[in-house]
Amino acid sequence: MVSSTRWGAVVLTVAATAMVLFSVVSAEATRVVVRLAVDDGTAVATAQDEVVQALPAGSFRVLQRYANSPYLALEVTPAGLEALRRLPRVAGIAADFELSPQAPTQ
Questions:
Q1: Residues 75, 80, 81, 83: what is their CA dihedral angle, to the nearest 10 degrees?
Q2: Each residue of 71-84: pLDDT tens digit?
Q3: CA 75 to CA 31: how far, in whole Å?
Q4: Residue 78, domain member (yes or no)
Q5: How far is residue 31's CA from residue 56's CA, in Å, rounded to a whole number?
Q6: Mean pLDDT of the region 28-42
Q7: Burial class (CB in 10 A: 0-12, 13-18, 19+), 75
Q8: Are strands 30-36 and 90-95 parallel, antiparallel or unpaired?
Q9: Is residue 22 part of a domain?
């Protein structure tokens, strides 16, 4: 049985992927956060290395590697995004964006 929460997550994943695809198609490169598929026996750094080494040269720029979390922040071209989508080590791709601090409300 599939819970409604799981279906909601699937819908959100599809929507996020569509947003990333639109961003990449409409721009030369876009920022993404990549969730890595890491099992208990694989170190995060090893998974990150596998993904980065599998991407075509010139199709990405590493923005952030996380020491203890199975994520990478990248800037990718359309070719880089397509390569990410095909990698078994990639569990998800979401659009990345910068947040600006806001003044406190009174």
A1: -140
A2: 999 999 999 999 99
A3: 4
A4: yes
A5: 16
A6: 89
A7: middle
A8: antiparallel
A9: no
One DSSP character per residue, 37-59 reads ---TTS-HHHHHHHHHHHSPTTS
Are 37 and 88 contacting, i.e. CB atoms less than 8 angstroms apart?
yes
Q: Domain limits at 34?
A: 27-95
Pure H helices in the chain: 4-26, 44-54, 78-86
Output the six-digit token pair for 14: 């599809």
With respect to residue 87, please indicate whether it lies within any of the assigned structural domains: yes
pTM: 0.69
Query: What CATH number has the domain bearing residue 55?
Result: 3.30.70.80
Report d(CA 47, CA 1) in Å as an integer.
31
The answer as to whether 49 is a domain residue is yes
